[in-house]
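Hey all, sorry for the wall of text incoming. These are the two entities for the joint prediction.
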Amino acid sequence: MRIELVKRKEHSHLMTVLSPLLAVVLTLLTAALLFALAGKDPMIGLYKFFVEPLFDSWSLQELLVKATPLVLIAAGLLLCYLSNNWNIGAEGQFVFGAICGSFVPILFPDFQTVFTLPLMLFFGILGGAAWALIPALLKVRFSTNEILSSLMLVYVANLLLDYLVRGPWRDPEGYNFPESRMFSDAAIMPSIGLGRLTIAAPITIVVIVALAILLSRTLKGFEIRVMGESPRAGEFAGFSRGRLTLFVFAISGGLAGLAGTMEVSGSLNQLLPVISPGYGFTAIIVAFLGRLNPFGILIAGFVLALSYIGGEAVQSSVGISDKISDVIQGMLLFYVLACDTLILYKPRLVRSRRVGTREA
Amino acid sequence: MFEAVLLTVITAATPLLIAAIGELVVERSGVLNLGVEGMMIMGAVVGFGAANLTGSGTVGALAAILAGMGMSAIFGLLVLYLATNQVATGLALTILGLGLSGLIGEAFIGVPGLKLPRLEIAGLSDIPFFGPVVFNQDALVYVGLGLVAIVSYVLFRTRAGLILRAVGDNHGSAHALGYSVLKVRFLAVLFGGGCAGLAGGYMSLAYTPQWVENMTAGRGWIALALVVFASWLPVRVVAGAYLFGAVTVLTFHAQAQGLGIPSQFLSSLPYLATIVVLVIISANRRLTLVNTPACLGKPFVPDR
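and here's what came out:
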């Protein structure tokens, strides 16, 4: 007995919707198994991880705070992946964007006007885009593999941040702690009156809507999808593969940089040696779980944000390491990819009787 | 001094060498496994744990190989038998490996490690300079070099190697000839996983005998770059690995000398060097196109 894949005549619409749900269910089952293996009650573990945070107003706010950068970064990655550009260095673009956005309040602490925050966000977007354009330019000009170059730049950006907060940007009144000075009020994202929620959340919604319009209503969106599915056809239509690569990398890096700046300005209020719990990598999972669809990633962003909050919750209540979040995130991506196979193929059980085949 | 530097270059190069030669075989079969980092880190934590529980470095190394193979088996099942996207699945493997190793490794943080013994070869190890450098390394240094020789021989001098390359260059034809493309690829993926696991085991058993979270620090990714650098030729992997070993060690020594360069800049050198090397190699189209497996990264679903 073995399983054989039979190609479907056309995409299964049912599976397009069902496959992410199936992946989440399989992840829950595996998570239960993990809790049991660690000697904890699986039902209590699952409840504390996935359910309880949804019924607590503080956790719900945290959920939104964490979902915001994930969705924003994934929104950019979506354009890259749809057009077959493998930007996996969003973490670096997030960090470099945050650095570029933060130089205003750190180096010019007395510059406190209504323009301070917009200027920071502008530099954050610019920085993230610039960092992403490095692998894009290398790909277009020298056909250098963008996967490896964008990833290598993650390490470089993290080391640069580490250098800055321990060296030139260290808070002069900070008792030698590796952290920058606190941002002035003019450099902090305004709250929307609900706990830690800032205007970052509405900005993200606007970006998602804009992205959905770009993809479904404009020529650029058409170009992105054509170049992803059939680059040859796209080139006959007069689309330039190189220019598109630069475009999607710039947008994707810009959004990651924006997310980085808003995280630093809205949540941390200063630069620290580590400013991201791996948002740039988790956003890759968000993009795939959301089926590379703008509104899909909105939902997927919440699922992945829940995995961070749930990890913290089970660490304190069940006594299992919050590292379990990373494991659950990795498993989720595996299941998503495996279930996506069902969209294009129909699995069929075959008895291996080997009749009429020359070679087994 | 020079002798000591050379010794550290060899130990820094060995994990890169072992991981890269495994990935080279995988890519020659037409599969791109971006999960090297995840398999390496799992090899590191499982190898460390097994060596600590049993007190034997050999058991540790074997456990590391098994851990890498286990991880690669998940990848192989998805990519080959469910025809999933290879780039995304490889990334998933890395994310899962980093998470799982962190979870498993919490018990080993701060636990003193077990260092693999150096092989003393009677007589030869006492030769001045050459003795310690060439004949007094831990066994895995020789295993790494031996692997390169074996892979090189098998790939280009045996029928099995011919089939492997055929599967990687034209899976349609290989299938038509009656070779099981998926089976060949699965075996190659397992081999790559074993190598990556062993490379990780080397990190936690020989390079720095302890467990630190994320201790592979991107070496799996550098190993992937080395395969491109080597333009898929095993012998060139040795040159690449030793070059990167040298860059790593030079940054350590530059830090020790206190040249006033911030340590973070020196630490970023291996990553920047990887990008520079990739650019130089990929800009040379002749060099890359000749040996790049034509079906690299393309899924294959047999139909009948």
